[in-house]
Amino acid sequence: MSSRRRKKKESDETEDVENKLKVVYSDKDVVVMTAPNEEELKQILLDLLSEKPMNLKELHSKLSGIASEDKIRRALASLTEKGQVTLLEDGRYAKLGTE
Fold it and tell me: Which domain of life is it from (predicted)?
């Protein structure tokens, strides 16, 4: 069994994402939230990318348990088509207008 301690900043970012999701059930041991719909996921991605450019792996690790890699990839493709996000030469995605 391995345990992983989150850095304070990483923990704060995860809490920011979780605060945008609807809580369905909560008790002292478990919190159950709805997964984000496509538009909510796009907004979460835009929020994350406004902080700094990230690659798919980084985004997926921040959204682990919230959205699959495939859903993240589709949302990024849609945001790229709309001109809100761009794919940099190094493979990172960046929100346009933030650099």
Answer: Archaea
